[in-house]
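It would be a great kindness if you could assist me with a short task in structural biology. The matter concerns a single protein, recorded as an amino acid sequence and a row of backbone structure tokens. The record follows directly beneath this note:
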Amino acid sequence: MSSDSTSAPAGRRRRDAGATKQALLEAAQARFAQVGYESTTLRDVAADVGVNLALIKRYFGSKEGLFKAALAASPRLMNDVPAGRASLAEALSRQLATDSWPEFDKHPVLMLLRASGDEQVTALRREALEGAAQRILDALGTGSSPADRSADGLLRAELLVALGVGVAVLRSAVGLEPLASVSAEELAGPIQGIVDGLMA
């Protein structure tokens, strides 16, 4: 019997439905990060949570809807970055350290990397990465208007995004040492040097 059983009181049903929906999101995030969009099936996600496949369709509509919800519920790379290069480097170091996302087995940015074969999903992935580059420009005070977003500035911001994604891949998916075990404090110095050199 699913946790959404109609035999339970109405208040209990709502709580169970919320918990089930959250569990499905977490299972989907893990699947999408580990095997990618194309290899993730709704049946596998439902089995991971121990619920009926129909619940995913009820809550999210489709695999694309589930991916969109899982992506929206994941931490965004370079989110809430204070202004300035030093703050940018500190935030990037913190987000890429080994203990950054204890609730995830793999770094959540890995959801954005594997080819999906679905144009709408590819657009969502691109939009998420473009958003990270824009937040970098905003943190440096160079993203407030289209005129400020020069091709060179945007390229440099995207290179920092690529650095973040690369660290996530090597740490989470490959386990390259010492990068896989480095702390935020140990990352801070080298990343500060990269940010200063790239974004000066």
